Amino acid sequence: GAVVSQHPSWVICKSGTSVKIECRSLDFQATTMFWYRQFPKQSLMLMATSNEGSKATYEQGVEKDKFLINHASLTLSTLTVTSAHPEDSSFYICSASSGGDEKLFFGSGTQLSVL
Amino acid sequence: QKEVEQDPGPLSVPEGAIVSLNCTYSNSAFQYFMWYRQYSRKGPELLMYTYSSGNKEDGRFTAQVDKSSKYISLFIRDSQPSDSATYLCAMTNRQFYFGTGTSLTVIP
Question: How many other C-beta atoms can be found within 10 angstroms of the C-beta atom of residue A74?
């Protein structure tokens, strides 16, 4: 299957700093990428949908100024958690759609811990 | 009513058992159906992908889609301890919808 690379796999940062997470589709062009948040033993919570070259669409309750999403190319989307606080600590996962066949591939996830 | 319903389990079976995982859905427009396996602290991995109704087999895994009943299933034959994970169903009509996931433990 197609490969989606997500980095870093884990990050620890101090409260108030910003953290950037990268999501790359390695062997296909992804016109649409998605960002999720997942708490322990809970399902995926969609945060935003990212389309190449346009502004991301955020789900209700997700602060777009806190979670900045950039989808500058067909193979790269980034999520920046700005001024991170301990309550932002979570597992963040990206996914990318391969297009017409509606297959969705996930990155390996990023565990963010804010001290 | 949720778009996709999935029993969260947990489900615990002995090694070698046949496992049946199921999801129901409400939107008859869904055309593509997927099953993902997620290990702890990892991203979901696409296991099975089916378009419209019917069965699809891949090794020990069989996916079934019954669009008339709005019901999909994943069967795992000869289950192994390495199958212990959370299994997510997903479906799409251009927008993706996920079940909550079923936690499976296969006991050696």
Answer: 15
